[in-house]
Amino acid sequence: MTGTGPNIPIIDFGPFMSGFYGDRKLVAERMRKASTDWGFFYLANCGMAADSLTQAFMASRQFFALPLAEKNLVAWQNAESNRGYVGVKRERLDPARPGDLKEAFNLAPEEPGAGVPKNRWPQGHPGFRKVMTHFLDDCINTADRVLEAFALALQQPADFFVRAHDKHHHTLRLLHYPPLPEGFEPADGESRAGAHTDYGSITLLFQDDVGGLEVRTRAGEWLRAVPIPGTVVVNTGDLMHRWTNQIFCSTPHRVNVAPECRHLDRYSIAFFCHPNKDAEIVCISSCVGEHQPALYPPTTAGQHLQEKLTNTYGT
């Protein structure tokens, strides 16, 4: 069942950016409630320049318009790298369902040193690399501010989460959901993106105006997360779920094949904020107590991500 209400919270991040403690604390408390009740919220006034987002979407459309043979020259190769082009149906976000009706391109901050994975940039398109590198930096800056707010909400030092993410082991993912052919009928369980939770700490999701994202409520209803101009969708992932002892929930979501938009191209950009691979994920002290014992054993962020990607791609 899919509905349109109740409403996913919309939070104005401007007061947190202003630097006044009382305002920052109020915003942090709202983010905590939204992350506990929903695991999702819309963030307005996050400080990202509108033209940076516009250029990123334009560059994404240009990449996906390239011939398939050219995109396959930079194809995704393995979970260790997790970079490059992912073809339609190559990925199964819900392992029990058919491959997703989408294509994607993954990139990440590039680290110096021999043997370190590098981005698989398409040759002959230097503008694409420049735009995406700039947008990736914007996403990192925004995510760090969100992580500061989460730390305040959980009574931790301001840099608690930022320090655990300072090696920038993040992934930026461009997504294209091609229009479905006239008369196309999805196979059993087939969708644009199967139901799943995200793997890392937080995700920043930028949508075009087509829509299709659906979020599962605590009651089990699928609710449409309609695009709201000037906002970014923020959700908490599996590692934040573990870190906070389920205080911040990792909520299942999907991209459905809605009848009214099945003939349209849909584009989105997701920034998956992931802790340093060697970061130990242990329940935060303020999230455990006499009547709230730790529910998960310690793990490392790298081990967790490797397991999740292996399940997704079957490699």
UniProtKB/TrEMBL annotation:
<comment type="pathway">
    <text>Alkene biosynthesis; ethylene biosynthesis via 2-oxoglutarate.</text>
</comment>
<dbReference type="Pfam" id="PF14226">
    <property type="entry name" value="DIOX_N"/>
</dbReference>
<keyword id="KW-0408">Iron</keyword>
<dbReference type="InterPro" id="IPR005123">
    <property type="entry name" value="Oxoglu/Fe-dep_dioxygenase_dom"/>
</dbReference>
<keyword id="KW-0479">Metal-binding</keyword>
<dbReference type="InterPro" id="IPR044861">
    <property type="entry name" value="IPNS-like_FE2OG_OXY"/>
</dbReference>
<dbReference type="GO" id="GO:0009693">
    <property type="term" value="P:ethylene biosynthetic process"/>
</dbReference>
<dbReference type="Pfam" id="PF03171">
    <property type="entry name" value="2OG-FeII_Oxy"/>
</dbReference>
<keyword id="KW-0560">Oxidoreductase</keyword>
<dbReference type="GO" id="GO:0102276">
    <property type="term" value="F:2-oxoglutarate oxygenase/decarboxylase (ethylene-forming) activity"/>
</dbReference>
<feature type="domain" description="Fe2OG dioxygenase">
    <location>
        <begin position="167"/>
        <end position="275"/>
    </location>
</feature>
<dbReference type="InterPro" id="IPR027443">
    <property type="entry name" value="IPNS-like_sf"/>
</dbReference>
<comment type="similarity">
    <text>Belongs to the iron/ascorbate-dependent oxidoreductase family.</text>
</comment>
<dbReference type="InterPro" id="IPR050231">
    <property type="entry name" value="Iron_ascorbate_oxido_reductase"/>
</dbReference>
<protein>
    <recommendedName>
        <fullName>2-oxoglutarate-dependent ethylene/succinate-forming enzyme</fullName>
        <ecNumber>1.13.12.19</ecNumber>
        <ecNumber>1.14.20.7</ecNumber>
    </recommendedName>
</protein>
<keyword id="KW-0266">Ethylene biosynthesis</keyword>
<dbReference type="InterPro" id="IPR026992">
    <property type="entry name" value="DIOX_N"/>
</dbReference>
<dbReference type="GO" id="GO:0046872">
    <property type="term" value="F:metal ion binding"/>
</dbReference>
